[in-house]
Amino acid sequence: MIAAIAAAVVVGYLPGALFFRLPLADRDRRATLAIEERAFWQVVLSLAWSLGVVLALSAADAYRFDRLLIANAVVAVAVAAFARGRLRLGRATSGPTWTLLLPIALVALAVWRFHPPSEYIIGGKDPGVYIGEGIQIAKRGSIVLRDEEVAAVPPAARNLFFPSHRRDDYYGIRFMGFFIQDPERGTVIGQFPHLYPASIAIGYDLAGVQGALATTGVWAVLGILAVYFAGTRLVGRTAALGAALLLSFHVIELWYSRYPNAEVVMQALLFAALLAFARAHQDGDRFFGPVAGALCALLIFLRVDALLGLAAIAGAVLLMWIVDRQRPRPGFLVAAAAGTALGLVYLAGPMRAYFFRPLAYLEKLPWTLLALVGLAGAVGLGIIAWLRDRFATRVRKFIPLTLIVALLGLAVYAQFFRQQAGLLAVHDAYAFRTFTSAYLFWLGLVLALAGLVIVIKRDFWRDPALLLVFIAYSVFLFYKIQVDPTHFWMARRFLPVILPGAMLFAAAAAVGPWTPRGTMVTRLRIAVGVVALVVLGRQYAVAAAPVRPHVEYAGMIQYMDGLSNNFTDRDLVIVESRDAGSDVHVLAMPLAYVQGRRVLVLASARPNKRVLEGFLKQALEQYHRVFFVGGGGTDLLSRRIDATPVADQHIGVPEYDSPPWNEYPKGPRRKDFDYSVYELDLDRLRPAGFDLDIGYRDDLNVVRFHAKEETEGRRVRWTGRQSFIAVPGIAGTERELLFVMHDGGRPRQAAPAEVEVFFDDTRLGTILVQPGWTEYRLALPADAVARAAKADDPAVLRLLSSTWSPSEFGGGSDNRALGVMVDKVEIR
Fold this sequence. Notes:
Elements lengths: L1 H11 L1 H8 L5 H5 L3 H25 L5 H19 L17 H13 L12 H15 L3 E3 L1 H5 L5 H4 L10 E4 L2 E5 L4 E4 L4 H41 L1 H13 L1 H7 L5 H19 L6 H13 L5 H18 L6 H19 L7 H9 L2 H51 L8 H4 L1 H29 L4 H16 L18 H14 L8 H25 L11 H9 L7 E4 L12 H6 L4 E4 L7 H14 L3 E5 L10 E16 L11 E15 L7 E4 L8 E4 L3 E3 L2 E14 L8 E7 L11 E6 L2 E7 L5 E6 L2 H9 L4 E7 L19 E7 L1
Parallel strand pairs: 5-6, 5-7
Antiparallel strand pairs: 1-4, 2-3, 3-4, 7-9, 8-9, 10-19, 11-13, 12-13, 13-18, 13-19, 14-17, 14-19, 15-16, 15-18
Helix pairs in contact: 2-4, 2-5, 4-10, 6-10, 6-11, 7-10, 10-11, 10-13, 11-22, 11-23, 12-23, 13-14, 14-16, 15-21, 18-20, 20-21, 20-22, 20-23, 22-23
């Protein structure tokens, strides 16, 4: 524990503390900052430096945690030697005041609210990919992984596991979110930029998987502080405190403080960058120029949509230069330009598969229109520059007023008049209304718009970068939400800028310093404003109350340990495909990249048997044992391929409801993983006959059934419109097929429960399935059985079922196409 704390100090405090104390760039000026802001900057600078080191080392395939500690120690010694011991801030240093208690209270509140983290280590979606990327950086020391299991798959068998996508930017998919660059060498890279995973790697090195998961909460706390300090400078300490408190109680901030995501990192770094930019350009502190530039550059290594924020900051630089003749700080330009160049090389190089979509999106834009817009913008800036010398005061007023009119007009249009039409998706048309009704609420909207008007009118030129960044993200994302429109998934788009900005402006309208101090009117306004913020905060706290005790996928770490214990690092584990009918495939990534097992994922629920036989022959020579893990249904067996059941597990973890944009989440539900483990072998003698208990160790016989269920003491599955059962071991003497089935309580209004049965290509007949568990028998033609006995592959029972959907008959959100329930299949 002591060693971990010492390492955390070296990573998260020491370098920044020394950088901040360097006797350069008017040190006495930054020494006058409040002690709490100085501490904030020392942490931010340390993390920025440490993450830069991690990225540089991992890009060179050379990261190890001890090397990071050594690098930080070396730079600390170098800074101390350069400063010649002159690291004291001096007499100008401001001491602690009562205001120090405010960020301390915010940190305590945030730590309490944002703990414990989710246990989202499974694959399949962005959170698991981030965790997998970060842990792999910690384990393998590189952003480009050398995956031995990929390289070991012979070319003839690659289509079994990762067929080529025939693209220039990557070969195929290793796991969801991990691209294979070169299957021959086994090079694999994660889908997302590596700044956030670099911090996860540090968390993993400090405290294992729990430390990796807790990293998000650390960033969320820094995000609250960044919003507080940036807001203190722009709208006053009282309003900034109110905004930080509202943010801490908000359901979006709470959810994403414990759910792996890059947006919460973007919130912290972007608001820190905006504060540094304002300190450098509006407050005249030279030290913060390169700090702002470096933080802006780091954002490129975090998310591609950070480029929108950087463009808005560039717009602020241009406006200040044209209107106020204020040149940008050279340190800012050098750091931002160098970092941006490296970032673009990174995006166009190792991250070209990630950067493909933005490039494709840009290519589809009408360049003629963009050229006209650019020309109009250039002309507009030229007009502003021409007017500046003649009407400087009017130009300074004209720009904020124009923004106010435009933003209010867009808000009224989006809230009351925007409708779905043509290519405009309905969730995009209603994006602003969804944000208002589900997350901001009417009181918050009124306060935020009022505060935005007040701040732009009064203080636009005091912090144009922050205001333009907020405007850019609001206009861009409310025009097109650019994400799957489900709660809380789409709320990610509001987290980095829109939500904290709205909180700042709402608090500014309520308690900001926009009327003369000391007057009765001001006291009354602030009293009313405090009440309004309390009412709004209570609304946010009530909305977040169901989320507060919820831990997404609680217990998953323990469950993955249990699955991993079935294997050794000398075994190969084959996991069922994504199209097998269950979510078991999402366990493959953590089994490989968190637990360190040797794992391959099938690309299809019906792999080529002859190719698979050849692969298994080689794998059984290369590995100690070969296993299969599945729960949905995979047609894997053949005359040569056999499977022996080893273990079964039913996992149930809490998962929060994620409905579409027009429904609010109802609360936690249960996410089930029901799988079995089989040991695979070749040419093993199997007993004659076929007697299959559907729902229990049937994973290698059923295809296109629904997931396993338990009802009336039986393990069963529902058929779909077309379902298959593989029947190995046909001897040629079988004459009867027996089913045990139930119509599943089908409503009277639905179509009758009919199942048409085929044995290979031979139609056996149609069964009208009744309520209750009943045996149904069909005769097997002798010639069809004789052909099946000679075939290498198992015979296939094909079931064509009439289906119904519970959601159409008052069954809630269950929209599955259900046929009948099957409990047993026997061939005699």
